[in-house]
Every structure is written in C-alpha cells, then in structure tokens.
Predict the 3D structure of the following.
Amino acid sequence: MTEIINYFLTESNLSKQTIPKQVVNQIARLNKAGREKLRHQLFAEAGNKPDSLLWLQRCFELIDLFSFRFNKVFFSPGHAIKENILLLLEKSIETLDLCIFTITDKELAAQILAAHKRGVKVRIITDDEKTIAKGSEIYFLENNGLDIKIDHSRYHMHNKFGVIDNHVAITGSFNWTYTATKHNQENLLATSNFDIVNQYHDEFNRLWKSLYNL
C-alpha cells in the first residue's frame, strides 16, 4: 500500500495512461477493507496537496477503475469450470485454501503443487475416504510437502470451495475430477464479494482447527 500512496503523492499527472503496472497490480490485490484503508490514508494526505479535492477525486477514480471485481458463474460439461479454476490457481500469490471433497484431476493437482513451489501457502481439507479412492492426488500432494487435513467421520466432508489470496472465493457442485469436466452437469461460482469471501475464509479456518492431519 505504501507504494500506491507514494505514487499518488509524487505523480503530477494522475491518469490511467501513466499509472505503472506494479501500482495497478497492487490496487487490484486490495480487498474492500484495504481499499477503505487506502482512501482514509489518502484523505489524510489531501490537505498537503494543492487542489486537494481534485487530487483526491482523481485518486479515488483510479482506485475504482483498477480495483479487482470478479463475479462469474460457470457450468459443465465442458472446460469452462476447470480452465477458470486453473487460471485462478495460477494467479494465486500468497494463500490458497481449498476445501475439496475429492481431487483426481492431475492438471488441477499439478497447478496446486506449482503454487506451493512458488511460495504460496497452500492448505487443503478433504474427505478421509476419498484420499484412498482410485486416482486420488491427495497423497501425491502430501508427499510434496503440502499441508492437508481430513475428517475422521462416517459422514462425508462434502464441501467444494476454495479461497484464493483471501480475495476470491470459488464454490459450487463441481468435483475436481475428469468426470465432472467431461460428463457431469456441474456449476461453479467465483466471486470477489468481500462479505462472501470472508465467510468462506472463516469457515475454512474453523474446519482447519477442528480436523486432523493426513
């Protein structure tokens, strides 16, 4: 956030044509709370700027312009769900919390592992029975150093949701399997809605504390 504020304070020509890419990327990564904090800090600095109201208006317009908002629904059969999950996994930067009933799709597992290898903190919750199901990628991921927890219950841990960088939540009927992509009627909702993301993040943490290591 410091780099964003420094740019706004030092740049004489605030416009979408001149704003550096790294500043755009930092604005895009801010959640609702981060954007509010940024606006408060800029408001505090406005008194030191000539034409402070015009300057503040330009700052807020750029924040609104480059703030990341993502609300989409995808359906299968077809590749839309899988391709968009792969894209979101690939773009993860800091954290990846996945609460997934079963993972047998090797491409999705490979992208999870790639995130782990580039330094993303990955946590996975999955169903205990599905860890030993045919084609499961869970032990492959665990053997590569990922943190994984399972339930120990005669009932299923049947959730299928994830939270990427505490910024985007994905949820729906979609199982992370080849069958779900090629044959099943499935759906996936992906959203950056602040309240929804927070609720899924809180639920993931609640489950993580209550479950057992693989």
About this structure: The two ends are 37 Å apart (CA to CA). The mean pLDDT is 94. The first strand starts at residue 71 and ends at 76. Strands lie at 71-76, 95-100, 121-126, 147-150, 160-164, 168-172, 186-191, 212-213.
